[in-house]
Amino acid sequence: MNLKSNFQSLLVPLAAVFASLYLINPNPHFLNIFKDFTVTTLPSSSFYLAQPFTNNFGRDHHHRPHKKHPDSGDAGSICDDFPPGIPPPSTNTTSYLCVDRKGCCNFTTVQAAVNAVPDFSEKRTIIWINSGIYYEKVIVPKTKPNITIQGQGYTSTAIAWNDTAKSANGTFYSGSVQVFASNFIAKNISFMNLAPIPGPGVEGAQAVAMRISGDQAEFRGCGFFGAQDTLHDDKGRHYFKDCYIQGSIDFIFGDARSLYENCQLVSIANPVPPGQRGINGAVTAHGRVSMDENTGFAFVNCTIGGNGRIWLGRAWRPFSRVVFAFTTMSDIIAPEGWNDFNDPSRDQTIFYGEYNCSGPGASTALRVSYVQRLNDTQVFPFLNTSYIDGDQWLEVYK
Ligand SMILES: *[C@@H]1O[C@H](CO)[C@@H](O)[C@H](O)[C@H]1NC(C)=O
Ligand SMILES: *[C@@H]1O[C@H](CO)[C@@H](O)[C@H](O)[C@H]1NC(C)=O
Ligand SMILES: *[C@@H]1O[C@H](CO)[C@@H](O)[C@H](O)[C@H]1NC(C)=O
Ligand SMILES: *[C@@H]1O[C@H](CO)[C@@H](O)[C@H](O)[C@H]1NC(C)=O
Ligand SMILES: *[C@@H]1O[C@H](CO)[C@@H](O)[C@H](O)[C@H]1NC(C)=O
Ligand SMILES: *[C@@H]1O[C@H](CO)[C@@H](O)[C@H](O)[C@H]1NC(C)=O
Ligand SMILES: *[C@@H]1O[C@H](CO)[C@@H](O)[C@H](O)[C@H]1NC(C)=O
Ligand SMILES: *[C@@H]1O[C@H](CO)[C@@H](O)[C@H](O)[C@H]1NC(C)=O
Ligand SMILES: *[C@@H]1O[C@H](CO)[C@@H](O)[C@H](O)[C@H]1NC(C)=O
Ligand SMILES: *[C@@H]1O[C@H](CO)[C@@H](O)[C@H](O)[C@H]1NC(C)=O
C-alpha cells in the first residue's frame, strides 16, 4: 500500500471530525483533548484504511463550507439541505425517528431519541442520525430491544464521550455508548472515546468507546475509536462486519461470542524502534471463564496493522478463546503471538487458534507452544455466521 496516500486519506477525515466537533462544542479545553487524540493517532507508518473513509467524507466536506452556522441568525437556511422524506412514516413493523444536531428533525441528541422508543417494543425502531459528532454519553437500557441506529458513514457520523475507568467508577461504566438491550443494530456510524491517551503505567485510564452487553447485536460499517479497552464485547452473540476498530491495549475485550468479518484492526500503540524489545499492546483479551461457556472471538478475513509491537491476544480469563482465520497481519504482531497473562496454568485451558493467515506477522514458526494451528475440520465452526447462530436472528435472515 502507498504510505503517502494512506496518510492523506487519514488526515482528511480527521480534519472533518475536527471541524464538526468545533461546531458542536467550541470549548477550547475539549478541543485540546481532541487535538491530543488526533496527534497521537496520526502515525508515521502504515495505517490500514477502508475506501469508504475518503468517499463518505468527500460528500460532507463539499457541503459544509456552504452551510450556515447555527448562530448566524439565519435559522431557516440551516435545514435547507436536510434530506426530504426523513424520517419516513412509521409502518406496522417499523418506526422511524430522526436525530440532527442542528435541530432539523425530531431530536438533537441520540439519547433523547432512544428515550422516545417505547419499552419492550416488538416493532423495530430505526433511529436515523445525521452527519456530525454527537458529544454525549448514550445508554440503551435492557427495556428497549429492537433499536437500529443508522449513521451516514463511520467517518462522518459519531457518538463521542471521554469517560475513563477513573471518572466512571470502573472500566465497565466508561463506555461512550453502552447497550444492554437485545437485538441492537448499528450501521455506518462511529463510537469514540476521546479521553487522552494515557502514558505507560497510568492507572484508571481505560476508556471504552462501546460496551455491547445485549444478545443478538449486529454492527455493519461501524468505527470504534479509543486506546486502551476500546470495544467491550461483553456478552451475548454479536456480528461485526466491515468495521474499523482502533486501540492499543486489549482493544477488543469481554466474554461475548462474536464473529468479526472483513474488519480492520488498527493498533495505535507507540511505535517500537527496531532492535528494541517489549510488548505494548494486545488486540484481544477474551474473558471466557469456564469450559461450559460457548463464547469466543472469531476473526475472519480481517487485517491487522498500525503501530507498536503487540500480541494477538492475552488470556484475561483462564478459558480465553480466540481464532484468527484468513487474516492479514503486519509485522507489529510479536513473533510469539499470544500471552497467557503470566499464568502458565492457563496454557492447558486457553484456546488460541490460527488458520491460513498471511502477512509478515502471521508466521507461526516462533509462536507460543499452546497456539493451535487449526486444520480444516477444527476451523469450520468459526468461519461463518453459524458460529453466532446468525440464521436465527441476523436481519438478512428475517
Ligand atoms: C472530558 O472533557 C470535558 C470537557 O473538556 C472535561 O471537562 C472533562 O474533565 C473530561 N473528562 C475526563 C474524564 O477527562
Ligand atoms: C397494518 O395494521 C392495520 C391494523 O391492524 C391493518 O389494517 C393493515 O392492513 C396493516 N397494514 C399492512 C401493510 O400490513
Ligand atoms: C418525528 O418527526 C416526524 C416528521 O416531522 C413526525 O411525523 C413524527 O411524529 C415525529 N416523531 C416524534 C416521536 O416526535
Ligand atoms: C424484538 O425483541 C424481542 C426481544 O428481544 C425479540 O424476541 C423480537 O424478535 C424482536 N423483534 C424484532 C422485529 O426484531
Ligand atoms: C462506585 O463503585 C462502588 C463499588 O462498586 C459502589 O459502591 C459505588 O456506589 C459506586 N459509585 C457510583 C457513583 O456509582
Ligand atoms: C453504509 O455505507 C455503505 C458504504 O458507504 C453503503 O454501501 C451502505 O448502503 C450504507 N448502509 C446504509 C444502511 O446506509
Ligand atoms: C475480505 O475483506 C475485503 C475487505 O476488507 C473484501 O473486499 C473481500 O471481499 C473479503 N473477502 C471475502 C471472501 O469475504
Ligand atoms: C490457504 O491459503 C493458501 C494461500 O494463501 C491458499 O492457497 C489455500 O487455498 C488456502 N486454504 C483454504 C482452505 O482456503
Ligand atoms: C484435525 O485435528 C483434529 C484434532 O487434532 C484431528 O482429530 C483431526 O483428525 C484433524 N482433521 C484433519 C482433517 O486433519
Ligand atoms: C456455515 O458453514 C457450515 C459448514 O460449512 C455450513 O454447514 C453452514 O450452512 C454455513 N452457514 C451459513 C450461514 O453460511
> What is the percent of helical residues?
10-25%
The class by helix and strand makeup works out as: alpha/beta
Q: How confident overall, as mean pLDDT?
A: 84
Oligomeric status? single chain
Ligand list: 2-acetamido-2-deoxy-beta-D-glucopyranose
Shape: globular
Give me the number of helical elements: 7
In what range is the share of β-strand residues?
A: 25-35%
The total strand number stands at: 27
Low-confidence stretches: 1-73
- Tell me the span between the first and last alpha carbons: 39 Å
| Biggest sheet features | 11 strands, parallel
Radius of gyration: 21 Å
Strand arrangement, major sheet = 1-2-5-8-11-14-17-20-23-26-27
Subcellular location: Secreted, Cell wall
GO molecular function: pectinesterase activity
Catalytic activity: [(1->4)-alpha-D-galacturonosyl methyl ester](n) + n H2O = [(1->4)-alpha-D-galacturonosyl](n) + n methanol + n H(+)
Biased composition (Basic residues): 60-69
